[in-house]
């Protein structure tokens, strides 16, 4: 069967157990969903994900979320082949463009040649310059930044340059302009960085600083066409919700919506579902990652999962027989693990349509490009050959 509309929903950082190559990333033993379930000691309630098969795809079910005898759809998991474990790597690979060459990372901070260019362009001093949790470094340096007008610049284990500033001290327009410049100087060949992230915050002092929804990601331009481009070129309507537009630098997106939060993102999904269109809606919900994974907060992570699950119930109720829902993630970010970085994990793969007559396992899919290949197959669009469609397995 082919579907009129496909909704691809990415639960940012919701991994489901260490990938076979996790040790290469020092991530052996990571398990985002498993450790969140353990933290809740049987009280994690996600009935809609459960009936879709979220525990059926695991060797050991999530604590408190037993596998169901007959899921309502198809379930499996995906294994990444990209060189990194960033959101860009995961999303690009899903859309048929694995990142095969490792991007630049900065475990010891940024080199002087990058910092001096940023200072000269912005006319502002740089403070920070180390791998750090965003909330921690803003709490530490935010008051200084407010007094001096300096830029807080930091990174993580991923290929990112993050630039933080108080919105009342450096206006958003200026912060974005600085980030755009930073983007222009790390596109290779010496340094190739995946994302420049503007991290504005507000608040009167270190005890009350809050990062705002005005975050903006300036992502490396896709190195070639992705599945979203192929869909758009074939006349298939494409919608991006959340940071999808940023991740693909606007390529291939006909209609885009910025998210203030997971729940705001689900509001956009509800809105798009009321529209009469044929096409692909690609959604990213980032709170799991930004608010809880990096902050190693399993309580908040689990509560966010339960809040999402309630909204998922509305989506399932509103689906039409010719709608297809695909739920996955771009990487892990285990809040019960060491450090503060993404974790190299399998990601869930759940597929559902009200028209399905059967259910079952999709097994382990690799690369992530199987996801995009399935979307292309549904709309009878040719891609670059990466990935294998599982459309025919959905009965």
TrEMBL record:
Coiled coil: none annotated. GO terms for biological process: 2-deoxyribose 1-phosphate catabolic process; 5-phosphoribose 1-diphosphate biosynthetic process; metabolic compound salvage; nucleotide metabolic process. Pathway: Carbohydrate degradation; 2-deoxy-D-ribose 1-phosphate degradation; D-glyceraldehyde 3-phosphate and acetaldehyde from 2-deoxy-alpha-D-ribose 1-phosphate: step 1/2. Its EC number is 5.4.2.7. Mn(2+) 1 binds at residues 12, 330-331. Residues 4-381 form the Metalloenzyme domain. It is an enzyme of class 5 (isomerase). Keywords: Cytoplasm, Isomerase, Manganese, Metal-binding. One of its GO terms (molecular function) is magnesium ion binding. The keyword Manganese applies. SUPFAM superfamilies: Alkaline phosphatase-like, DeoB insert domain-like. It catalyses: 2-deoxy-alpha-D-ribose 1-phosphate = 2-deoxy-D-ribose 5-phosphate; alpha-D-ribose 1-phosphate = D-ribose 5-phosphate. Its main location: cytoplasm. Its cofactor is Mn(2+). Mn(2+) 2 binds at residues 289, 294, 342. CDD domains: PPM. Pfam families: Metalloenzyme (PF01676). The keyword Protein biosynthesis does not apply. It is found in: Cytoplasm. GO terms for cellular component: cytosol. HAMAP family: Phosphopentomut. Isomerase that catalyzes the conversion of deoxy-ribose 1-phosphate (dRib-1-P) and ribose 1-phosphate (Rib-1-P) to deoxy-ribose 5-phosphate (dRib-5-P) and ribose 5-phosphate (Rib-5-P), respectively. This is Phosphopentomutase. It comes from Secundilactobacillus malefermentans. The lineage of its organism: Bacteria, Bacillati, Bacillota, Bacilli, Lactobacillales.
